Structures are given as C-alpha cells and as structure tokens.
Amino acid sequence: MSRTHPSTPRADVYSRITHEIVSAIESGAGNWRMPWHHDGAATARAQNVASRRRYRGVNVLALWIAARASSYSSGLWGTYRQWAALGAQVRKGERGTTVVLWKQVASPASDDHGDDQAGPACMFARAFTVFNLAQVEGYEPLPVAVLPESERLAHAEAFVAALNVPVTEGAYDAHYRIDLDHIFMPHFSQFRDASAHMATLLHEVCNIASVLISRTVDGLCALLFPNHRTACCAISGRES
Fold first, then answer.
1. Is the peptide bond before 35 cis (omega within 30 degrees of 0)?
2. Phi and psi, residue 19, nearest 5°
3. Domain encompassing residue 208
4. 238 falls within a domain
5. What is the pLDDT of residues 136-187, one digit of tens each?
6. Nearest 5°: phi and psi at 217?
7. Is 29 within the bounds of a domain?
8. 122 and 168 share one domain
9. Angle CA(161)–CA(162)–CA(164) in degrees, nearest 5?
10. 121 and 15, same structural domain?
11. φ, ψ for residue 190 (rounded to 5)?
C-alpha cells in the first residue's frame, strides 16, 4: 500500500499553487465570449521544452494561470538548467512558476520485510521552478505542423461519435440535460464557423464528465475539462 509522508516543503508548494489559483479566481473571468474556453493556442497544452512531455494534474492549471496573467503566447516551459542546456538564457529579473513532480519510490528494506525485500512504496513530491519561452532569450522553437481545419474537425467528430452521446440540434442555446442525459445545441448554421460549433459541443460533452465525477465539483470541472479537451483536440473558438 502506498503512503505519503507529510513535509513542510511540500505544504509550502501546495500553499503557493493554491494562492495562485485563488488569486486567479478572485481576479474574475474577464469579458465573456463564445465558446467559453481557451482559444486553442499552445498555452493550453503546456509542454516541457526538454522532455517534450505535456504537464499534467495541478501543473496544467498553475501554468494556465501564469500564462494568462503574463499574456504568454507559448506553451513551452522549462527549468533554468533545461533552458541553459539548449543554449538559451532566462532573462534577469524573470519570475518562475512552481510545478510539482510526483514519483513513487520504494522504502528501504526493514526488519519486518527481510533483508532482500523493500518496504512499502512511498509517494515523493518535488517542486521545480519553470520559465516560459517568453522569459528566455536565444531559443527558436521547432516549427509545428498544423493540420488543415477540416482534419481537425474530423478528428473531433470521431471523438464525439465514439462517446455515443445523444445530441439534438435546433435548441435556443447549448446545454446538457442531466435528467434526459442529452445534449441540446443550436443549429449548425447559427455558429460563426465549424470550429466554434465543435468547441461548444465539446464543452457540453465535458459537462457530462463533471456530473459523473461529482456534483460537488461540478463548477470546477465545467471550467477545467472543456479547456483541456478542446486543447487536446486542437479546436479553436476564435472571435471573427
């Protein structure tokens, strides 16, 4: 059975990230606009510049908040050493963002388990400070292949179809009826473009996930899951 050992540094990491989240909530959502999610820019898919892996868990939220607060246009992040290894330099005076890396490690062998048997697994958390591409000099990001808009929509359509979620078009607005387990959408012709239509549909699909997970966190899930799903499907709901 895994176990977590409390530590003051870890509590400090949680406090910092929690403070950033609360500050972002208190600052307000800004001007509301359709279709209720991030515009699909790379900042919505935060990625480590060295490993090219996407950040997960609370790190996604922390980096979203940092990117929004500083108006970063890139989703590439890295530690000071990672940027330096790539020949880049973090500008003097730049303030980093805290992320957390979790690892599972085996405890040293004890008398209860014998000399050749490790103890129970423990979860180990370590905090890192990362900097956005906009905070460094001397690095040119690799060109990213952009799929044609038609292929992006086909990819998203396949995702929605695989969920077997009942959808009816012709409603006065977009919403999910929990009592009917059904999504209602305006006519396709009422949307600015195909991307706006699909982004809105994905938002409603993710509202189902928020209900299934827990009603007590419905508001938070409705805010976070649509951002994450539309980002992964590369759907943008940009203003015309």
1. yes
2. -60, -40
3. 149-232
4. no
5. 999 998 776 666 767 678 888 888 888 888 899 888 788 888 888 899 998 8
6. -115, 25
7. yes
8. no
9. 70
10. yes
11. -85, -10
